[in-house]
Amino acid sequence: MLDLRGDPIALTAALVDIPSESRNEARIADEVEAALRAQTTGFEIIRNGNAVLARTSRNRPSRVLLAGHLDTVPPAGNLPSRLENGELYGCGTADMKSGDAVFLHLAATVAEPVHDLTLVFYDCEEIEAAANGLGRIENELRDWLSADVAILGEPTAGYIEAGCQGTLRVVISATGTRAHSARSWLGDNAIHKLGAVLDRLARYQARSVDIDGCTYREGLSAVRVDGGVAGNVIPDRASVTVNYRFAPTGRWPRPCSTSTRCSTGWTCRSSRRTPPRVPCPGCRSRPPKHWSRPPVGRSGRSTGGPTCRASRRWASPRSTTDPVIPIWRTGATSGFRPPRSRWPSTCCGNT
Fold first, then answer.
1. Where in the numbering of this chain does the Peptidase M20 dimerisation domain appear (predicted)?
2. 17 is an active site residue
3. pTM for this structure?
4. Is the N end or the C end of the chain the one with fewer CB atoms within 10 Å?
5. Is 71 a catalytic site residue?
6. Per-residue pLDDT for 285 more than 80?
């Protein structure tokens, strides 16, 4: 059984050593549920599919929701875990079994929390949004997602990340005329037509937007190029997928319709659009109700805790169902995946 009261580093390693690729979380959910039932007190614990939820009802003046996903991306030869030079290696150490370990450890060791707690360990976060376990919880157990503030244990290198950028994905397509490359003048190369798109993207200067002490750096990037028929054929079709990450300023980019003629020879269509979130009240001058002091001041510096910064990533569409709930990300590890997922074993106290 998982030892929730022991060393959080060892607990992280134990979680990592339970394979839990998306859609295969049953075993780790079983282990987490059993450990919570055996090693915590004062929690109502339920199971929903491969998600495990637990909450206290101590009539505290406020409630904090601690959320983490149990699944990982597919392993890449990085199981089982191993500890080398003070760093823990293995699939999911950074994203996000270290965060799960901290939340489980807190649930088992903090006897009298100042706030009521809700723990949500959910499935299928690393794949398409429609499969995200929080969507199922929203539909079936909506009241379990009610809280004064939600904290996601995603890797942030010890920072508090506030809000998130929006994302817009657009596919720009070009058409031409197919021909044999030995007689290229008889064709019209669709790939060449996209050269102007790629050139414009390469010259784009990203905006940096400051919102209440959090700096969001926007991005406009080509993330996929498709085209070509064979090595001796002039292509008649090609496309480039563009991803735009934009700050939560209230000015959303207008998406293309299903199919819009956006320039000579190009057709644009939106494939995905997700709204941003503004920084939560905890990163402003007024803290959420019932906090004894602001966790983070207006300057973006914490009052005795980690620094606040803007979240660069898009938040899960099911992070919480109530847009009024302030959401933070905070975790001990880097917010960027290294070649082999790793977690510095000295950072547990930062979460």
1. 166-249
2. no
3. 0.70
4. N
5. yes
6. no
